[in-house]
Specification:
The chain is globular. It is about 50% helix and about 10% strand. The strands form 2 sheets. Strands 1-2-3 form a 3-stranded parallel beta sheet. It has a two-stranded parallel sheet with strand order 4-5. By secondary structure, it is mainly α. The protein starts with a strand and ends with a strand. The protein has 2 domains: about 1-80, no CATH class; about 85-135, no CATH class.
Length: about 140
C-alpha cells in the first residue's frame, strides 16, 4: 500500500471494533504495520482526535485510552512527530483528570523543548508540577 497517513477513523475502528465492515480492515492494516509490512504515518492531531473521541463519545476511561493508544503509537513502523514524548503525556493525562489531552501534551512539550514556560490564561495548568504559566 505504500507510505500512508492514517486517518483517525481507521485508528478508532481498530480500537473500538464497532463497525462490522470497517473494523476488520482497520485491524488488518495495523497487523501489517506490526509485522513491518506497512508504514503508517500519524500526526499529533490524529492522536488528539482519537483520545478526544474515545473520552467524549465512547466514554472510555483515561487509563484504558492510554493502554489502547500507546501500544499502537510505539510500533516501529508508526511514524509520528513527537512520538518519544507520548509516554510522558499519557502519564500526565491519566494523573490529572481535569486537564485535557492537549493541555497535557503542551505541558510536556514545554519541558521537552526546554522552554521557560507556557503563555496561557488556563489556570488549570498551574496544577502541573514544574510548569511555569505566564499570563500574557
Amino acid at each position: 500500500m505504500g507510505d500512508l497517513l492514517v486517518d483517525t477513523n481507521v485508528v478508532l475502528r481498530h480500537l473500538m471494533q464497532d463497525n462490522a465492515a470497517q473494523s476488520p480492515s482497520a485491524s488488518a492494516f495495523f497487523a501489517a504495520v506490526e509485522r513491518g509490512e506497512q508504514v503508517a504515518r500519524l500526526s499529533e492531531t490524529i492522536v488528539f482526535e482519537t483520545v478526544f473521541t474515545l473520552e467524549r463519545t465512547y466514554r472510555v476511561p483515561r487509563a484504558l485510552i492510554r493502554d489502547a493508544v500507546l501500544p499502537l503509537m510505539r510500533l516501529p513502523d508508526v511514524i509520528l512527530p513527537g512520538k518519544e514524548i507520548l509516554d510522558t503525556v499519557f502519564d500526565l493525562y491519566t494523573s490529572m483528570n481535569k486537564l485535557s489531552f492537549a493541555d497535557c501534551y503542551h505541558a510536556v512539550l514545554v519541558s521537552w523543548l526546554k522552554l521557560d514556560g507556557i503563555a496561557s490564561f488556563d489556570r488549570g495548568l498551574d496544577r502541573v508540577p514544574g510548569l511555569r504559566r505566564v499570563e500574557p
